[in-house]
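PROTEIN DATA CARD
Card holder: TEMPERATURE-INDUCED LIPOCALIN, temperature-induced lipocalin
Chain length: 181
Origin: Hibiscus trionum
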Amino acid sequence: MEVVKNLDLKRFMGRWYEIASFPNFFQPKNGENTRATYTLKEDGTVHVLNETYKDGKKVSIEGTAYKADPNSDEAKLKVKFYVPPFLPIIPVTGDYWVLYIDDDYQYVLVGGGPTKKFLWILCRQTHMDDETYNFLLQKAKDLGYDVSKLHKTPQSDPPPEADDIPKDTKGIWWIKSLLGK
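Structure generated from the sequence above:
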């Protein structure tokens, strides 16, 4: 599968809002205001903070992303999280392939490797216009993804930022997601 070449990691850093994704077991079902924040570390790896809001609580997981092949110009990354989030002991690694990004680094199409089981549409803003969304849908279709599985992620405008929102520190969302709830 063709991926972006020569991704500028520095420009890619920052906050991305999830516009749509394939539902998966490692994200809370029916989460809202889902976002990812990427921070480049001195060693060239990326700190990953994934956050979403579920049942009035903020849930999050942190991990690390790194180039799958340091000698390649392809935007094929690996992401590693430790689970369960309330007792992070088991490393889980997955693919994070940048399939398309616009020239201004404002929206991106990300796949979870060659299996086509995972797909995300991300944007720097909480909402995306229909023309851009449909363009990314077509890109995904052209790459062989079944876009009928995409689920749009509800986003507030402005997004929640308050620290007084309760956090799920027990990882209940993670257990529920494993059970499909």
